[in-house]
Amino acid sequence: MTQPNRVALALSSIFAGGGAGAAVATILVWLSWTGWPFLSVFGDPRNLVFAGNFVIGPLIGFIVGWRLLRGIGETWRHAALAFTAAVAAFIGSWCAFPISMFSMMVSSPLLSQVLVPAYFVAMVVIYVVALRIARRNQVAAPAL
Fold first, then answer.
1. Is 32 contained in some domain?
2. Which of 6, 22, 52, 88 sits 20 to 30 Å CA-CA off 58?
3. Which of 106, 125, 116 is nearest to 19 (CA)?
4. Is residue 91 part of a domain?
5. Average pLDDT of the chain to the nearest whole number
């Protein structure tokens, strides 16, 4: 068995956290965009966009990044890389909003309905591929 690659673990954890956070935030952007009546419980539908992009997406990115980086020994590196995953999720989350705005301006009805779900699928694919790479390169937890 080969030694796990720490660089591959770090980068894949950042991409996995960013993809997971962006995927969840994209769902909230899409829900806000559809304007379903049950969303009035949250007040203005734009609240879902801000909650997903500022809080939920980066938080999920941080948690996924933190969990996948178990093999990194130093806590400060662990936290720095998890924070970078949260920033990646924040950036990916905010890319969903312009895509949803662009989909409203497209003249093709089919294309306007497909853009946001296609972005969601792309973020899920990034998450799954990065998760598999991270799992392959994880180091066993140290024995106590």
1. yes
2. 6
3. 125
4. yes
5. 85
DSSP labels, 46-101: HHHHHIIIIIIHHHHHHHHHHHHTTT---HHHHHHHHHHHHHHHHHHHHHHHHHHH
pLDDT at position 1 = 41
Contact predicate 60/20, CB 8 Å: yes
% the chain with pLDDT above 90: 38
Q: Is residue 142 part of a domain?
A: no
Q: What is the pTM of this model?
A: 0.85
Domain count, the chain: 1
Tokens 């790479």 found at? 133
Residue 126 to residue 71: CA distance in whole angstroms? 21
- How far is it, in rounded angstroms, from Cα 28 to Cα 52? 6
Residue 7's pLDDT is 84
Say if 144 falls within a structural domain. Answer: no
Residues of the chain with pLDDT under 50: 1
Among residues 137, 129, 132, the alpha carbon closest in space to that of 19 is found at: 129
Find, among 101, 69, 93, the residue nearest to 83 by Cα: 69
